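#data-curation
PF: Archiving a pair of folding outputs for the training set. Convention for this channel: one message per protein, sequence first, structure tokens after, nothing in between. First:
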Amino acid sequence: MTRYKVGVVGCGFFGSSLARELAAHPRFELAMLCDRDFERAKDVAAEFSATPTDDHDVVAAHPELALVVVATPNHAHAEPAIAALEHGKAVFVEKPLAVELVDAQNMIASADASGSPLMVGHIMRMMPGVRRLADLLTSGELGEVAAIETSRSRWIDTGGADPQWWKLDKSRTGGELTHEIHELDLMCWLGGEVTAVSSIATADDGFRNTVVSFAGGAIGRHTISTRSHTSSWELTVDAAEGSVHADFHTGRVSRLRGGRVEESWPIFDLDAENQSLIDAASRTQKYNSGNGGSSLWMQAAIRHEIDEMAAVLDGKADADSPLTYARERALVVAEQVRLGGGEPAALSGSAK
């Protein structure tokens, strides 16, 4: 069984979380940590006896690395990813793939030219209960999909945040529809090719509704709010022969027919992981720090993500792997919303 050496670019909250789980995983050896703040890179690298650097080109050129993980701020994904791809490395990029569509297209073109895998970390695709839901729809057992609805509305506490923090800068996050792309991604991942987009928001963009038309005839509706005093975190797919509903507040997915629940399963397999998700869903989100450890449910989802990275490097994951960039439709939708709606342009690339 091959053990792959990996370097991580970006040592903030999520980069450190990925590094910690990669270091503990039996299929990977964490060899390098990179951050433009060299002291931060040194601090994180010391925890894992890895080599620190502040130059992502050094990581890209390292002859022993099989995988480079990019967990920089959203707007800074393309440069280290392309550098690593050009050196023949497999690359995993934290969500979103990019802020600007042209950066995503350039990354995909580099992956195609090098023949190296390009993976994208949409962590909610990796939740076991969500993957089961997706497999059920793919099997065709529920028939033709008619409608998909996703929502994530909650209050985000920004009190005490550094005004210069990148997560408060839309030019670096891409705005809430891009930075908080998870549920929109689930809708587009399950819905297929996007043919039209329309969206409306409040003046401060604290509440936004986006409607998407899919080539197969289904309609999707996505609601996101960061200023809501109530909370909603759900995914519903209505199809000809039944519906599936994921409620992240209860940690359950239900299969329904005629309004009655026929089957139900947890979003995470272990009770403690599922309870961690439920607890996180019920709390006010503190959006004022990049520090602190990740929660149990997030650690579990990252481990599932790393398992899939290993499968991709082993050549055992097919073109429909949840990590493939071929389903980056949500980024196309977010770009189209910025352009005012209409018929979206497609991402370039050969993946299907």
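PF: Second:
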Amino acid sequence: MGIGRSILLAMSKSAFLNDQALHRGFVKRAVKKFMPGEAPEDALDAAQVLGRGGRGTVFTKLGENLTRLDEADAVRDHYLTFYDMIQARGIDGHVSVKPTQLGLDLSPETCATHLDVLAAKAAACGSILWIDMEDSSYVDRTLALYENVKRAYPNCGLAIQAYLLRTPQDIERLMAVQPIVRLVKGAYAEPAHIAFPVKADTDRAYYEVAVTMLQQAAKGNCFPIFGTHDIPLVDRIVAAAKEIGVADGKYEIHMLYGIRDADQARLVRDGRTVKTLISYGSSWYKWYMRRLAERPANVWFVVRSMLPG
């Protein structure tokens, strides 16, 4: 793991820096590079603009590792209302939630119940509920949650992290439930015996898992989503899809709001299905620092956003 990435991930865990960031105007201006605003309406407004250019949206309200179950109830209730807001505006939009937002640390049973409720709501709205993957200590519990909810509600997707050494086996396991999988590189600080410490190894693993997912998609066993801003990697995956025989529309490409916007638009013009992940809410510090750590070049965006003119 690079020194810059390690520092940024360490900073993401600092309560002091979190408090300082939330009260610094220049930091908030920098954050707007990656999220249109803290309010749900800000996210929905941005999604409508993107929709006019042919892009769908995945929404997530920031926040994780809640400490009280009533907070998890509030997250559930928020998303139930938010699905209605998406539908009222005619947006092609999904919701993505972290299990710890729904109380996984406090009560796995409550978390599972909340996921069922949200999956039922997504189905009623003709949408998808996404379950985010958190750090490696949550993988087994999150896989179990996903398998259970996916059997009851086919309209559920799961994020899987390519930098974890275990991921090829996890992908193989998930084929039993015909998963919808968003493959991402991974954004948490993990030891070398759990995750690839070198970016080149993660990139190689990502492509290998992507090809496996496409091969399974050709058999009708999987709906693959590729969540990466690595454009050369995306182009390789698109070429692989054509070679394997997976048509446009049978897989998707997901990228974050504010990153590779021109490339996202170009991919849509080329016939790819693209969805933009839009985050909102006031608990943005940890998420923001992980975004910077994913690609240290993003730090330059922050520096530029602080300059006048």
